Amino acid sequence: MFDANQTLIGVLGVGRDITRARQSEMEVRKLARVLEQSPESIIITDAEARIEYVNDAFLDTTGYRRDEVIGRNRAWCNQRQDPARKTYVAMGCAGPGPTVEEASLNRRRDGSEYIEFAIITPLRQPDGAISHYVAVKEDITEKKRLGQELDAHRHHLEELVEQRTAELNEARTRADAASEAKSAFLANMSHEIRTPLNAIIGLSHLLLRGGGAAETLAARLGKIDRAARHLLAIVTDILDLSKIDDGRMQLEFTDFHLSVILDNVASILGQAAQDKSLTISIDRDKVPLWLRGDPTRLRQALLNYAGNAVKFTEKGSVALRARLIEHQGDELLVRFEVADTGIGIAPDQMARLFQPFEQGDASITRKQGGTGLGLAITRRLAKLMGGEVGADSMPGVGSTFWFTAHLQRGRAGASTDAATAVDFGKAETLLRESFAGARLLLAEDNAINREVALDLLHGVGLTVDTAADGREAVDKARATAYDLILMDMQMPNMDGLATRAIRVPPG
Question: Quick one: which of 39, 156, 135 has its CA closest to 93?
Answer without folding.
Answer: 135
